């Protein structure tokens, strides 16, 4: 799995584009890279383009593992809003399962939306206020 993170956008504050075959390790890698970047801040709005990513190898157990990784990083995630754009109905279903598990754990304090189009994802992200600027700006 390969990914690229870009910073800035409208209305997203960061974007991720992933391609190849989805793995728990690959999905967690972009999250960890984003969280460790100095531009990451509470309330960040993230647009994730998974339209080039094959989710067919992920199982429900893998989705549970993803949510456990979110729990490990809950303090760092700090009210992130993440819009996932999927390529196919089966991929959409896996992402909705992840969204449902996150919703069962409000202590994670992140919101996930799942979409078939980037335009719809951006409209949803635009409903959230922009995060506060970094403290050093």
Entry summary:
The chain has helices at residues 24-36, 60-72, 74-77, 89-103, 118-125, and strands spanning 2-7, 14-21, 45-54, 81-85, 111-115.
CATH class: Alpha Beta
Measured distance between first and last alpha carbons: 34 Å
Number of helical elements = 5
How many structurally independent domains? Answer: 1
CATH H-level homologous superfamily name: STAS domain
Could you tell me the CATH topology label. Answer: Transcription Regulator spoIIAA
Radius of gyration: 14 Å
Regions with little confidence, pLDDT below 50 for 5+ residues: none
Largest beta-sheet details: 5 strands, mixed
Mean pLDDT: 91
Q: SSE string, helix = H, strand = E?
A: EEHEHHEHEH
Strand content: 15-25%
Describe the oligomeric state of these chains in a short phrase: single chain
Which class best fits the helix and strand makeup?
A: alpha/beta
CATH architecture: 2-Layer Sandwich
Number of strands: 5
Strand order of the largest sheet: 1-2-3-4-5
Overall outline: globular
Helix fraction, binned, reads 25-40%
Task: Summarize the structure in words.
The chain is an alpha/beta fold. Helices cover 39% and strands 25% of the residues. It contains 5 helices and 5 strands; from the N terminus they run ββαβααβαβα. It has a 5-stranded mixed β-sheet with strand order 1-2-3-4-5, sandwiched between helices. α2 (60-72) crosses α4. It is globular.
Protein topology:
Elements: E1 2-7, E2 14-21, H1 24-36, E3 45-54, H2 60-72, H3 74-77, E4 81-85, H4 89-103, E5 111-115, H5 118-125
Parallel strand pairs: 2-3, 3-4, 4-5
Antiparallel strand pairs: 1-2
């Amino acid at each position: 799995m390969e990914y690229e993170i870009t910073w800035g956008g409208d209305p997203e504050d960061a974007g991720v584009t992933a391609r190849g075959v989805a793995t728990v390790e690959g999905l967690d890698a972009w999250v960890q890279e984003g969280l460790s970047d100095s531009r990451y801040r509470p309330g960040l709005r993230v647009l994730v383009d998974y339209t080039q990513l094959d989710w067919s190898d992920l199982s429900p157990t893998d989705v549970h593992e993803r949510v456990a990784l979110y729990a490990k990083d809950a303090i760092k995630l700090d009210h992130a809003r993440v819009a996932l754009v999927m390529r196919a109905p089966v991929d959409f279903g896996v992402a909705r399962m992840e969204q449902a598990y996150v919703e069962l754990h409000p202590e994670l304090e992140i919101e996930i939306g799942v979409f078939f189009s980037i335009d719809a994802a951006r409209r949803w992200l635009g409903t959230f206020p922009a995060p506060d600027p970094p403290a050093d700006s």
